[in-house]
Protein: F-box domain-containing protein
Organism: Cephalotus follicularis
Amino acid sequence: MAHGTKFRKTSGISTSSLQVCTDSREDRLSDLPDDIAHLILSFLSLKEYLILSFVSKRCRDLLLTMPSLNYDAPNRHLGRRMSRTRYMNFFDRILMHRQTNKINSLRIRWALYRDTLYRIWTWLEVAVKCNVEVIDLEITEGRRLQFIPPVSLLCCESLTSLTLNLNRCSFVLPFSTVGFTHLQSLSIKYVKIQNDSFCEWLSTFCKSLKELTLEHIEDVHNITIKISSLERFFMLNPIHLCHLNVLGDMLQIIHVNWRFDSPVGKSLKICAPNLKMLTWNGNPTNNNCVGDFIHLEGVQLFLEPKVKAHQNLPGVLHCIRMAKDLCLHEIITQALFEKGCLPAKLENISLSIIASGLHDDLVRAMVFLLHGMSNLKTLSIKYSSPATHKKVSGFKMNYWVSQNLKFIGQVEVVVIELFNGDNELELAKYLLRYGKKLKKMSILHSLPLPSNIITKLNKYRKCSSTVIAPQKK
């Protein structure tokens, strides 16, 4: 009874919950191999760890040898100091008694109060001593505080992946002369950068870095990433950024999501001769300098050009003309048509248009684009919500025939998602009748199709082509 009273005072868990655990005559967990038991325990919360630690010595030993630790405190306890202290003391004991048992991964989700900063430091330092490989730290509160990582973390030779989600806390480097020499993946999110030399520090000391993600970075106007080992770079929703320079011979994937009110004073420079995949969302800058990507395999451009940025679009298209797969949003497709922005020839063999509907304006823009794509083998038109309310008068098949599009003799695969029906079906008829090499056409739809639609389309198809109409789920 005394033990139950003590447990109730320290954990706040009712004795009825404990009774379920202690009165069970069959301890299935103790009979399992350690690796399977650890896998099961990895799905538990910190509160459940606390309960489990009172069940048996075997359970406590399993907690002390778990290769992956998840310190995700319940939200309702974060604002209560006594509850915070109770959970922190429990986690302190787990780490203290682990000694040097290896930690493969450590995930901490906690509020950064002044009385918790030292605890977080201590946990990170213990993890370093246990040769931790993966750390994921998420700060749930504490926007006005500074987070300074311990020097031991920067020098950790076993650490290969680090994720810092700081909830707009300030990130300050303790020294600019040490860095993550063995780190391969670094993700920094929702943070205010206080060091002017942060990017220079990354490029100088993170020599083994292969993947870098910067998301919602604040207070940095100029970012230059030049890391010789970097293969994948993600810049997502920066704030206050004016100039972005990305350079690297090993870069294969670049994803930029950057929006702003005006392109004036904004620039983007990419020098990555071996780039294979480029995704660019948001707004084009007023000054773009991107290399000639001869190894490019896929490009996704979901750009919304501002008035003064239209003139730079031909240069962007020229640089990606060799990409095998090109995916465009309807907004940039229409912008290219309206401003007459098109290089002499695009070598893309696959084109995807993401649109809210195949309305009349988009039909004209598509024709303009297809005139420069004589080698096109795959054409895909897919839906993105919300649905369009623009004019759809119905461009008949004869309109497409009159355009003398050269790609019609090369296209082999077509995917068309039905929006309002008329323009899509007329385009489908044209492709089926005049596509000399067409092998397969897929008509995607969310609602059941009228039975006569496929019958009508089959009248236009050649013997060598097939038409299928799978319904989207």
User: Anything to note?
Assistant: The domain at 68-241 is CATH 3.80.10 (Leucine-rich repeat, LRR (right-handed beta-alpha superhelix)). The chain has 15 helices and 21 strands. The longest strand covers residues 161-171.
